[in-house]
Amino acid sequence: MTVEPTPVTVFTGFLVGAGKTTLLISQLALLKQLPKDYKVAILKNEYGDIKIDSALATQNNGNLAGVTEMLNGCLCCVLTGQMRAAIIELQEKYHPDRILIETSGSAFPATISIQLRDLAREFSGQASGQGIRLDGVINVIDVENFTGYADTSKTASLQAQYTDLIVFNKWENVSERQFDIVWDRVNDLNTDTPKIKSNNGSISLEAILGIDSKLGLTLLEAPRHQNSHDHAGHGHDSDEHVSEIETLTVKFPKKNLDGKELTSFFNYIEIAPKDEIYRMKFVLRLPGSALPTASKSDSSEPRTYILNWAFGRYEFTLISEEAAPALLDDYLAGIGTVMVGRGDGRRFRKRLSGGILGDGVKVEL
Question: Are 14 and 108 in contact (CB under 8 A)?
Answer without folding.
Answer: no
